[in-house]
Each structure stands twice: as C-alpha cells, then as structure tokens.
Design a protein that fits this description.
By secondary structure, the chain is of the alpha/beta class. 34% of the residues lie in helices and 25% in strands. It has a single domain, classed as 3-Layer(aba) Sandwich (Rossmann fold), CATH 3.40.50.300. The strands form two sheets. The protein has a six-stranded mixed β-sheet, with helices on both faces. A four-stranded antiparallel β-sheet has the order 2-1-4-5, covered by helices on one side. The N and C termini lie far apart (37 Å). 41% of the residues are buried.
Length: 244
C-alpha cells in the first residue's frame, strides 16, 4: 500500500457558539484518488479541508496524514506533505511578484538557492505561467492569481493537494488549463467545489456532504448522474450531463 493516504475517524467539529459543522465523519483516501467533495452551502466542505491542514485544531476524533497524527507539534511535518489552495487567492499571495511568492516556501524551509530556483521554474511550468514570473501580484487577474497560488503549493512538491473552490474566478481558458494541470498531478487530490462540471472533469471519486455528514461516496458516474440524490441535497446535475 502506498504511504500517501489520509485517514479520518469520527471527526467532529463545532463553531465557538456550539453549532455543529462536522459530525462523526470518517473518511479515507489514498494515492490514486482524486476526490470531489460536494455539497450545498454550509455543508462543511471547506471546514473539512481546513481541518486536514490544521488551520483549526479544536476538533475531536482522529486525523492522520501518512500515519502522522494531526496535532500542534506535527503541523510543520504535515504541511510538507500536503498543500492547500485557498478559495481566496489573496489569502495565499503576499509577496511582490509571482516568482517571489512561489520561491517563498522552499526558501523559508532553508533549501539551497539552486534548488529553490529549480522548484520555482518547474512549478511555473506545470501551471503554464512562466511568462508571469516577474509580474506584480497586484496586476494579476483572478484566474492568474489562482494559478499562481497553485504554483506556490507545487513548489513544495507535496504528496497531496487540497483545493477549495478552485474554478472560481477562472475564465474558460484558465479553467481548462487548471483541469489539465490537476489531471497531470500524480498523487492525491481533494477538491471541494460547487462546480460539478469541474468535479466531473477532474475526479475519479465523489463524496457528497450534507449537514456535516457523508451522505454518499462513490464514482462520479454513480453520484453526479443521480439527479434525485443531488436534488435532495440542494444540488443539480452537472450541465454537461443534463442532456445525457
């Protein structure tokens, strides 16, 4: 069995006011999974991804990333293995230029400058934005920011990537580009999105969440073609499937 996997058991999380967000959620994903996390607003999709990278540790239950238990003392090690792309790219980009942002994490981890340069170039090539290397972050379009954010993650050569609503703000060309980039990524992906056509194009597994619980877990064929299931959980079939 591959060492690349996520194991979640009986995960519970509530807001500070006591409102439950995730309830006894158990989940496992391994190296060849590309998992679409779908659900209506407030279902718990984004919260789930944030917990997996330790953005909030006030949960009960167990999260293990490659057999490493998620806790405060293991956060640095876990974040070497798992990259998280925020829904709002402005939360992720903070340097002056694209190249500086992509270089930040490898440089911060103390890698030799030659290795930093190699990783920056490879990450920019993977998302097809080498031409943006010296461009100011403030002059990027929304789609360019999303691709730059993904490059900052890829520069750390993670074993797995998590993406929260990655197709938001993308024009059709950049959307197709991102689908291509994600389909080339060799390891584990978790993608939370309302864009079910995007999920159809990038995922080999779909997990439907509602009120913090997993309602269904199966192939895109099983779940995204099931209009009754989707409708009962506040969703609609992907547009690409409505005529099929």
């Amino acid at each position: 069995m591959s060492h690349i996997h996520i194991d979640v058991e009986n995960l519970n999380f509530s807001y500070e006011n006591g409102t439950p967000v995730l309830k006894n959620l158990s989940f496992r994903a391994s190296e060849n999974d590309s998992v679409g996390i779908i659900g209506a607003n407030g279902a718990g999709k984004s919260t789930f991804l944030k917990l997996l990278v330790g953005l909030n540790l006030n949960f009960t239950g167990s999260i293990r990333i490659e057999e490493i238990p998620l806790e405060k003392k293991t956060l640095a090690k876990i974040r070497e293995k798992i990259g998280y792309v925020f829904q709002d790219s402005d939360s992720q980009l903070f340097m002056t230029t694209v190249g500086e942002d992509v270089a930040f994490a490898p440089r911060n981890y103390g890698l030799p400058e030659e290795e930093v340069e190699k990783r920056v170039q490879e990450a920019l090539e993977k998302v097809h934005i080498t031409h943006l290397r010296d461009k100011s972050i403030f002059k990027l379009s929304g789609g360019e920011k999303k691709l730059a954010s993904l490059a900052t993650i890829l520069s750390m050569t993670p074993d797995m990537i998590l993406l929260d609503e990655p197709s938001v703000a993308l024009d059709p060309k950049n959307r197709r580009n991102l689908i291509h980039v994600l389909n080339e990524f060799e390891h584990l992906k978790l993608i939370a999105s309302h864009d079910l056509d995007f999920i159809w194009d990038t995922c080999n597994r779909v997990v439907l969440v509602n009120h913090g619980e997993i309602i269904a877990d199966g192939s895109p064929e099983e779940i995204l073609r099931d209009g009754e299931l989707l409708d009962a959980n506040g969703l609609e079939k992907p547009l690409s499937l409505t005529g099929r």
